[in-house]
Amino acid sequence: MNPQQMLHRIKRGRTGLALGGGGALGLAHVGVLKALEEYHIRPAVISGNSAGALVGGLYVSGKSVNALIELSQELGDNMFDHFKMSLRSGLVSIKRIHNLLLEILGEKRIEDCRIPFYAATVDLKSGRLYYIHRGRIADAIRASISVPGIFRPFSANGLLLVDGGTRDSVPLRALDKHRLSMRIGVGLLKTSLNDDFPEALDIFPDEEKEESEKNEAPGISKILSRTMAITSTETTFKSMKLYPPDLALYIDIADKMKIWDFKRHEMAIEEGYRQASNQLKRYFG
């Protein structure tokens, strides 16, 4: 089957879409959805993790791509106004974000949506992976975006639910319950990594230097952000290799914005659209 025949089959059939996590980089998913729609690919089922659950959940609720772009513009510049520092179970309280989601989505439930939806999350107590498929969309998103150590876990059904990327960065397995013509996975690359074989290192400590602003170790926020970017990118690669989709789209904007840089929402969406369009063109011709 040539690429054009495959595209025709996809348009006539059912496509599943799995959206990976990535903090602010997740806004690139909006651009990916726009590119898919231009190819007349409208997902019959969507799964998402963290930022992917946020964009996917809003999309299945009935928000159009244009509405998502407008929403990102309204919230992007002021996103951190909705964060509040907390010393209980996480560095940042997510209550305001949850309330904002309820304001946008109301009581709308996943099972009432035309497009089936799954939000990936992990129970901190058991380490078990769950795909939320029923209940309020706002609650499902709230659970899936709860980055451990940053946001407080979401308590539900006797579980402590956190970001699904702990175990499943791009939740392709969530699509397996559906008969699909094609499964598309979207991975967000948060940093530049390679798959080279690890090198052996003969370590020689640097000579001690006088402390100065230039030589001080990076701050805790930078260390956390960088660690999250490396770990998240690695788990993205592993998810796509362990459960390979029919079509893998990788969106790499690591050099253009950081994981919490919500103010660059326009660039994230534009890059998601541009890179997805280029990859779809290469695949389908």
Description:
The chain is 37% helix and 16% strand. It contains eight helices and ten strands. Strands 1, 2, 5, 6, 7, 8, 9 and 10 form an eight-stranded mixed sheet that branches. It has helices at residues 3-12, 28-38, 51-60, 65-76, 95-105, 137-144, 220-242, 265-284; strands at residues 15-19, 45-49, 84-85, 92-93, 117-123, 129-132, 154-156, 159-163, 182-189, 247-252. Helix 2 (28-38) runs parallel beside helix 8 (265-284), helix 3 (51-60) runs antiparallel to helix 6 and helix 5 (95-105) runs antiparallel to helix 6 (137-144). The chain has 285 residues and is α/β, with parallel strands linked by helices. The two termini are 13 Å apart.
Summary, kept brief:
This protein is α/β, with parallel strands linked by helices and 285 residues long. Helices cover 37% and strands 16% of the residues. Helix 3 packs antiparallel against helix 6 (137-144) and helix 5 (95-105) packs antiparallel against helix 6.
Largest sheet, in brief, is:
8 strands, mixed
Which class of secondary structure composition applies to the elements? alpha/beta
Radius of gyration: 19 Å
Low-confidence stretches: 84-90
Features:
two-stranded antiparallel ribbon, alpha/beta, 285 residues, 8 helices, single chain
